[in-house]
Design goal:
homodimer, 137 residues, alpha+beta, Arc Repressor Mutant, subunit A, three-stranded mixed beta sheet, 5 helices, 6 strands, 31% helix, DNA-binding, Fur_C (chains A, B), repressor (chains A, B), zinc (chains A, B)
Chain lengths: 137, 137
DNA sequence: GTTAATAATGCACTTCTGTTGCATCCCTTT
DNA sequence: AAAGGGATGCAACAGAAGTGCATTATTAAC
């Protein structure tokens, strides 16, 4: 099994204590988190560091950004073999309007969307809003 | 043909000079606009007024809000018979990563999306990103 | 192992969007 | 003409996002 250190190194990310902690935090969460979620979890650390760490993770394709319509950007770890940097095979996200949580529905692929003549589709963002399984039960 | 005054009145919106101007501005635009777009077009008017005018239009269902993933909320006039307030018949939006413009593809309906057991879908936001017809030509 | 270079972190500050409270103005109705 | 209610304008605030620079830590070179 691959350690987190190995994973980061394989993605050209220098390993630091901070980055390991942030990675672990993201791995423990099953839902997408905002920057302030991370901020609250690491009150000792500076906001800028957290911000730039996430940006680094994003550039190196180990987290992907989610825009769930709340106006606040959320982030989640890419799955093993996540192809969020590839344009065609995107999963969708579910935003619960009750608890506010956003989860990746990695099993549910986005159907092919037709666009009019002249338009070139490169990426699709699909967010379903409603009530999640925890809140509907 | 219905005048703008009649339209506003039919939606319980009091007609003012400002509101007529903002409505006309939205009608002329073929793309979704941000609040600062409107701000730039009406430099004499106060930001708050424009903000609240749009909010009023939104409440009364003559504009709909678009979240195209840029992080900035955009607005567009609802089409004749627009059902954006109804949960099922939503059109999709196209965001051009070249010119930054976002257009409503009102003819293109969103396919039914399956969600896992326990999840209740109430609303779907679908934004296709890529190159628009003007930029690809 | 010390030093030089490079990257990471922390602090301060700025910008932008969105929002609210309050005073004032304008229009409508009586 | 006066009163009431909504519209407008001003000020101010909150939160997210982002940048510049100094400082610290890590790696690489000698």
């Amino acid at each position: 099994m691959e350690t987190i250190e190995q994973l980061l190194e394989s993605k050209d990310i220098r390993v630091t204590a901070m980055r390991l902690l942030i990675y672990k935090f993201l791995a423990e969460k099953e839902v997408a988190v905002t920057l302030s979620d991370i901020e609250n979890a690491f009150e000792k650390a500076d906001r800028t560091t957290l911000y730039r760490t996430i940006k680094t993770f994003e550039e190196k394709d180990i987290v992907h950004q989610i825009d769930d319509g709340t106006g606040i950007t959320k982030y989640a770890l890419c799955e093993q073999g996540c192809s969020c940097n590839i344009k065609t095979d995107l999963h969708l996200h579910f935003h619960c309007t009750n608890c506010g949580e956003t989860v990746c529905l990695t099993d549910h692929k986005i159907p092919q969307i037709k666009v009019p003549e002249g338009f070139i589709s490169e990426n699709v963002n699909l967010v379903v809003k409603g009530i999640c399984d925890k809140c509907s039960g």
